[in-house]
Structure formats: structure tokens, C-alpha cells
Amino acid sequence: MIGLGTLLNMAAIVVGTVVGVAVGHRLPERTRELITQALGLITLVVAALNVIALRDADWVADVGSAAPLLIVLGSVVIGGIVGSLLHIESRVERLGGWVQAKVSRSSDDSGRARFVEGFVDASLLFCIGPLAILGSLSDGLGLGIDQLALKSVLDGFASIAFAASLGWGVAFSALSVGVVQGVFTLLGAVVGSVLAASAIAAITATGGVLLIGVSLRLLKVSRIAVADLLPALVIAPLLTLAVARWW
After folding, report:
1. Domain ranges of the chain
2. Average pLDDT, stretch 120-146?
């Protein structure tokens, strides 16, 4: 069944959130903050592993050894311009606030901010990365849900850590996962079989850069508007195809 992997992923996030909320109030604030920071460090490691795709043999063969880094740079810059003009970050935050208003009667500003932070940060973490993209493409191509099954396990544990600190907003990131991975699953069913390996490497490396931004948010180093950079994930494969055509 095409789409089963994404449904499994969404369920894992919800279950992980329930567990995290159940145990989170039992932990002191210092411990919950440490859990979020630990998740930020792991995200940074995953980001570094993704950025290694800059040396992908297929990508280098298609565009040359110097072009991958320039493609990622151009994608992030252009994507950031497009995303900031579209106010993607603020729209996602408003969506989180709207969801919080619908599901909770609390008018406490700190509780609302915590809910929105959980929704936005978890959505970014769960929707950016090679497993989200490649796993969805494989699902759409009918090649199985192995990658999304693995991602479901990882996201489930991450949801526990997130929810212990940030609460119920994390559960609603499952909706973001459903939309994003659903689009890539549909894309895989339609054109995935003709998507070049170099284009996939471009998405992976660019996603790694965005994940660095997510890790910096979790570590409270800088509140980078990562959602505004999301168009880079579309621009990167397009630039790769354009450069490969003239290389």
C-alpha cells in the first residue's frame, strides 16, 4: 500500500509524544532542557552525515568537483530569499498558534509559545533529511517502506524527548510529516523513477545544511528561520540539472 510508510511515521510521532508528555512532567526543568540539547547534538551529527553528500560520485561526475558546494550555496541563498518573501516561517508559526487555539483552552502566553515551538521545531526536524525524502520516493515507487519504517522508529524516540520538554505541539508535527512526505510519495509515484542520482544527492546535502540550522535552534545558539530556507530543497535539484546540462 503506497503511503503506508508515512502513516506509520505519523503514528510513531503521536505515540512518542504521548509517552513524552506522560513522563515529561515528572522531570525537572533542567533535565528536560538537557534532553532537548542532546537532541540538538544528535541532529548536528545527522546533518554532518548528510552534508557528506557533497562528495557524492554521481553528483561530482554530472556537475564537476567544484560545483556541488556552489549549488548548495546558491540553493540556500535563493531559497532563503524566496522563503523570506513568502514569510514561510511566520506562516508555520501562525499555523501552530491556530492549532493550539483549537485544541487547547489555555490562554497562557508561555504555554502557547511552548506549543508553537514544539510544533515548528519538530516539524522541521522530522520533515528535513534524506530518510524523509528518499523514503517517501521509494514508497511512491513501490520499492517498500523500509527507510520510512526506520525513520518512524527514530522519530518516535525523538518525539519522546521533544514532548518531554515541549509538550503536545510535537504531536501535531505529524500533520506536517503527512503533508510533506505525502507530496514526495506522490512525486515518487509520478516521476521518481527518472529522478537523477545527482539530484537526490543535491537534496540530501542541502537538507544537511538546513538540519544544521535546526540543531542550532535546539541548542539555543541561534533562532535561524529554517522554514524560510525550505525552498532550497526544491531549488537544489533544479540547479543540479541545469548545471549538468551545460557541463
Report:
1. 4-246
2. 83
Q: Mean pLDDT, to the nearest integer, of 104-112?
A: 65
Task: Return phi, psi of residue 54, to 5°.
Answer: -60, -25
Determine the average pLDDT of the residues in 13-41.
86
CA angle (144 as vertex; 139, 150 as ends), nearest 5: 90
Task: Pick the closest to residue 184 from 140, 226, 214 (CA basis).
Answer: 140
Q: How far apart are CA 95 and CA 106, in angstroms?
A: 17
Gyration radius (Cα) of the chain, Å: 18
C-alpha cell at 29: 526543568
Q: Find the mean pLDDT for residues 55-66.
A: 92
Using the 8-state DSSP alphabet, how is residue 195 labeled? Answer: -
Rounded to whole angstroms, the Cα distance separating 150 from 116 reads: 27
State the Cα–Cα distance between residues 106 and 167, nearest whole angstrom. Answer: 13
Q: Which grid coordinates belong to 179?
A: 503533508
- First-residue to last-residue Cα distance in the chain: 40
Burial (Cβ within 10 Å: 0-12, 13-18, ≥19) of residue 232: buried
